[in-house]
Every structure is written in C-alpha cells, then in structure tokens.
Amino acid sequence: MTVIEGMHPLEHLIKGFTDLVHYITIADESAGFQGLYANQEVDPIRLESQVPTNGVEFSKYISIPQGQCLQLQTGNDSNGRPKKQKEIWGTVKLESKLSPTHISSIIGGDLQLVGLGCWRKRVQDRDTRSDFVIVLCHFDICAEAVKQKLIPKLQLMEKAMFKGGLHTKWKNQAQPEFALISKNIQEPSASDNSQKVQLR
Fold this sequence. Notes:
Layout: H1 9-27, E1 32-34, H2 55-58, E2 62-63, E3 91-95, H3 100-113, E4 132-136, H4 143-163, E5 180-187, E6 190-199
Antiparallel strand pairs: 1-3, 2-3, 4-6, 5-6
Helix pairs in contact: 1-3
C-alpha cells in the first residue's frame, strides 16, 4: 500500500482497507476479514462501514510487522534529505468461498488502480522435517501448558488408531517424550508475528 502525500498513514490504511473490502465483496459477497487472535472475540468485517477507524481496532484484524510505517515521517534523514514515507505492508485473514489465488487475480487490477496490492501468503516451515505442527493465531503461548493439554488428546488419538487397526506394533509401548518449540512463521520476503508450536 503506497501512502498518498499529505495524508497520514493511518488515514491511508483506513481508506485502503475500505477499498480492499469493497473489491473483495464484489468478487465474493459472503467474504469476511477475520480477527487475528484466538483470545479476542471480534465480528468479521464484511461491509465497508465495518472498517475500523483507529489503530487499536485495526490491530485486531491486520498484523503490520513494521509499525513505523503507520507513523508520519518528518524531518530529514542522515544525508539531509526529507524522510520518505514507508509503504504499508500487513497480513490479514480472509474467509472466502473463492480460492486465495483466484480472488487475488480477479481484483488485482482494480486494487492496483488505487495503489493497493493483495497476495496470498503461505505458511513457511523452515525445518526439513516436522512431525507435528500447530499454527496459532494467539500472540502469546505457554509451551508447557500446551504440552499438558496435548498429552491426553494424543493418547485418545492413539487409542482410536489402535482400535482402527493402525500402528498396532506400538500398542504396548509408552508414548515417546516430545519437545515443544515456539518459532515465528516467516515468508522469505516478509515477516509475520504469528507463532508456531512444533513437536519433535
């Protein structure tokens, strides 16, 4: 999102997000932007009139890694030139009956006309092997608490597998110990504040 000269970045975010809602709901009238965090109950944004008008409410729907892009740049840089306003990049969660690739392609031209871009962002696993991965939308976790909740669930899943005739060679053996590791999910060209819990 390119910031218009003379407009505060937050004002431009409100305008840009309103345009995004407008074009996406033309493509899919049932589409809605979901809240980012599991511990915050917010209604999905399906109408232009539902777009937040302040930064606090926006933070529930969009993750912006470079928070400085929402601050108006004033003064000069180290070379004495006026500071350039940063472009706004963020991640949102969209629920739609259309595939992310399709919806991005059909509204791409319209968004470009108003200085916006929309791309599908895939979850990237940076390890060569993952036995079990949980992708969370909560901004903070307690790994030990998650582990204690997972153990009985894994035991129930194992019993169901044995009952179905799967992996019976492990039936009389105790479940192996596992470790929980919390990592950030990152794309090569952008960063994201979501958390990943991985079992090894």
